[in-house]
């Protein structure tokens, strides 16, 4: 009797309401993004507090960080194009765009490393008190999250050439796209934050 009632209730539920349930992978992704936002919010808040110290030293943002900004923005565009190609089942284009996004992601991390080397050459190390020390930590943590995304892109790139890709759900690609767009926006926010609050 109970099962019959539940079946009837399900059948009477509008299809739109049933379709609004979020996929578990997407839910997990949004929880992870929320945690990352809270972590960086705490770090940037600590930065603001520390920046009021009398011995605070500002830093010049290396040019490599500006170049890496352009690279990660382009990578977001190519990944969004890859998602569209996947949904349209244009698989050759999807494979190419995933590969391009992966290369751009690696290029971003390399440019970040070169930017850190530039800072080190300016005698900005972990010693002392200033924006440089926070920059290493905050930008470094962001780079680690990008590397996590690169690993996921590698897996997706391999799967694009192995198995019956056309039968796969688009959910993994959608989750990857949202996460990658998130680290893109997060990077732009962090860069502008350092320029406005503690850089020059």
CATH class of the domain at 64-200: Mainly Alpha
Annotated CATH architecture of the domain at 64-200 = Up-down Bundle
The amount of beta strand, in percent, is under 5%
Mean pLDDT: 82
SS element count, helices: 7
Task: State the total count of DSSP E strands.
Answer: 0
Largest sheet: none
Model description:
This protein has 200 residues and is mainly alpha-helical. It has a domain at 64-200: Cytochrome c oxidase, subunit III, four-helix bundle (Four Helix Bundle (Hemerythrin (Met), subunit A), Up-down Bundle), CATH 1.20.120. Helices cover 78% and strands 0% of the residues. The chain is built from 7 helices and no strands. It has helices spanning 2-12, 15-18, 24-50, 63-87, 91-121, 131-161, 171-198. Helix 4 (63-87) packs antiparallel against helix 7. The longest helix has 31 residues, at 91-121. It is elongated. The N and C termini lie far apart (71 Å).
What are the main properties of this structure?
200 residues; mainly alpha; 7 helices
Short description:
By secondary structure, this protein is mainly α. The chain has helices at about 1-10, 15-20, 25-50, 65-85, 90-120, 130-160, 170-200.
Task: Detail the topology: elements first, then pairings.
Layout: H1 2-12, H2 15-18, H3 24-50, H4 63-87, H5 91-121, H6 131-161, H7 171-198
Helix pairs in contact: 3-7, 4-5, 4-7, 5-6, 6-7
């Amino acid at each position: 009797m109970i099962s019959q009632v539940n079946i009837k209730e399900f059948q009477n539920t509008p299809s739109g309401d049933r379709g609004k349930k979020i996929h578990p992978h997407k839910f997990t992704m949004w929880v992870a993004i929320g945690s990352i936002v809270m972590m960086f919010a705490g770090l940037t808040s600590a930065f603001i507090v520390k920046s009021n110290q009398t011995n605070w030293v500002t830093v010049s943002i290396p040019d490599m960080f500006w170049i890496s900004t352009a690279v990660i923005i382009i990578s977001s565009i190519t990944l969004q194009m890859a998602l569209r190609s996947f949904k349209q089942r244009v698989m050759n284009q999807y494979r190419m765009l995933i590969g391009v996004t992966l290369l751009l992601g690696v290029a971003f991390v390399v440019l970040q490393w070169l930017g850190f080397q530039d800072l080190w050459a300016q005698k900005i190390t972990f010693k002392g008190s200033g924006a440089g020390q926070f920059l290493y930590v905050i930008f470094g943590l962001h780079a680690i999250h990008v590397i996590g995304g690169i690993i996921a892109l590698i897996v997706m790139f391999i799967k694009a050439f192995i198995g019956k890709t056309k039968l796969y759900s688009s959910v993994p690609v959608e989750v990857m796209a949202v996460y990658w767009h998130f680290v893109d926006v997060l990077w732009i926010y962090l860069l502008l934050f350092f320029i406005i609050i503690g850089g020059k």
